[in-house]
Amino acid sequence: MTTAAVFDTRDLDRAVPVVHVPPPATPREAGVRAEQTRNLRLRGLVDTHVDFVARVLRNSGTPHAEIDDEVQRTFIVAARRLDDIRPGAEKSFLFRIAFNLAAHARRTAARRREVAADQAPEQVERFATPEALTDQKRMRELLDSVLDQMDEHLRATFVLHEFEEMSTAEIAEVLGIPRGTVASRLRRARAEFRERVAALQGLAGYVDREGQG
Hints:
By secondary structure, this protein is mostly helical. It has 2 domains: 90 residues, Rna Polymerase Sigma Factor, Chain: A (Orthogonal Bundle), CATH 1.10.1740; 86 residues, Arc Repressor Mutant, subunit A (Orthogonal Bundle), CATH 1.10.10.10. 70% of the residues lie in helices and 0% in strands. It is built from 8 helices and no strands. The longest helix has 34 residues. The protein is elongated, with a radius of gyration of 30 Å. The protein starts with 8 loop residues before the first helix and ends with a helix.
């Protein structure tokens, strides 16, 4: 005599958990979530890199009074191009934006100086003497004067290495160039920097001697 097994479907219901699949997001909900994600990423970008951007702008020749405005402009540009910023490449992306804005600020400041010089033709600008270079403000002016005359490629490499203390490999990643190119530019930038500082200090000494004569 064969006994048939009795299968109770309620046992299966108790053994298998019920998975509730949420309905797909509406286009409006998807848009809100995407915007929230973008805002979070932008906020993280600002919190992590705002000091770096300010230093790049300052050391790339942006007038001190305009740094805050240029920092804001840098992140406004970054916000517009947020989707173009590859994860992990945020720093190099921001550097390029800030460096380009600094170049524009330098050109604008140079035009203003030219206008001021035309309005006051008898004013003679004096470079810092060795004694005056002990003053931080005059040291900064000398540094800006030297960096302002550098080729932009050399200046970028010099700023990242000397001020941001980046390694050759890090600079190569930020600028998107080979390490050998970084090393070559850095050697040229250092040599040019020393030559220009020496020339400016020599001119300052000459001006002082003429003034005392």
